[in-house]
Amino acid sequence: MQTSAGSHGTPAPLSQASQGVGSLPRVRPNRHAVPLLVLWLMLACSVLTHATPPAEPIVDEYQVKAAFLFNFAKFVEWPSEAFSDSNAPLVITVFGEDPFNGSLEAVKGKLVNNRKLTIRRVRDIQDIGKSNVLFVSPSAKKELARILEALQGQSVLTVGEDAVFTQCGGIINFVKEDNRVRFEVNVSAAERAGLKISSRLLALARIVKSLPQGGSK
Fold it and tell me: Does this model's pTM top 0.85?
């Protein structure tokens, strides 16, 4: 596996292992986003190399998603008030059962805009605390509405993998198509949270809208 690391302050690309992956999920870009995707494919190798032993180069779905979370953080701008001070870490919180099987440890301690990444795992809404990225585990599906309601007015990048996650007000949702991992973004939800998402990230996403109150898709 070849690796390549981005420079500090520059959004890093996302990748998967280039060999032996079979039907491994990967992002399918539109034709205008190919140059960016090539760069992105080069960086996840550097991120995931630390998580995958040399003897086991195959990258599973949640290793890919862990690398996505790392890169989402690089492509999103938080308002200054989202952090207690200039030295505060950027916190990724997993709500519910952790499906990453340790893959998030590969990005723990890495720098995003000069902030060190920390990883938290919680199971109660009152424990979400000062999170910057909140991944809502499939195990917490029934609590989605309460979670999003609790985060209203806060600058938290919510990420999930439920069919109606973004339509219900979540910001980024993982979806699988033809055994490939893609993602969709609710831009309006990001704006309400005071987050600015890079156009380079949006170029690789499917843009969706929230459902009207009590309405349907």
Answer: no
